From TrEMBL:
InterPro entries: AIG2-like_dom (IPR009288), GGCT-like (IPR013024), GGCT-like_sf (IPR036568). Residues 4-104 form the Gamma-glutamylcyclotransferase AIG2-like domain. Pfam families: GGACT. It comes from Flavobacterium tructae. This is Gamma-glutamylcyclotransferase. It comes from the Bacteria.
Length: 106
């Protein structure tokens, strides 16, 4: 099993059912040294507002989220779901857990 840190859309039960056909159970955690940035992504019916993680100049800036246990197949589904504005990288969370997260793709 893999760990996935979600700070936004992937915490939605509706999105989880659509992507994984199940509801995920997670644990709250934080990522320090990063912040959220607004992002507009063009979708089928126009522009939609999202957030994306970017590094912060302040190492204590927290991003609050949830860590889910997922399979490699689940991660592949999320890779397809996320737009090319995001990329998946591994980070170490406040708890010491190493997890995948989707950050800004520059």
């Amino acid at each position: 099993m893999e760990k996935l840190f979600s700070y936004g859309t992937l915490r939605s039960k509706e999105i989880q059912m659509r992507l994984f056909n199940k509801i995920l159970t997670g644990t709250r955690d934080q990522l320090h040294g990063h912040k959220l940035k607004s992002l507009q992504i063009e979708e089928e019916f126009g522009m939609a507002d999202y957030v994306v993680v970017v590094p912060s100049a302040t190492s204590t800036d927290p991003i609050h989220g949830v860590v889910f246990e997922v399979t490699n197949a689940d991660l592949a589904k999320v890779d397809l779901f996320e737009s090319n504005a995001y990329k998946r990288v591994q980070v170490t969370l406040n708890s010491g857990t190493v997890a995948w997260i989707y950050i800004e793709n520059k």
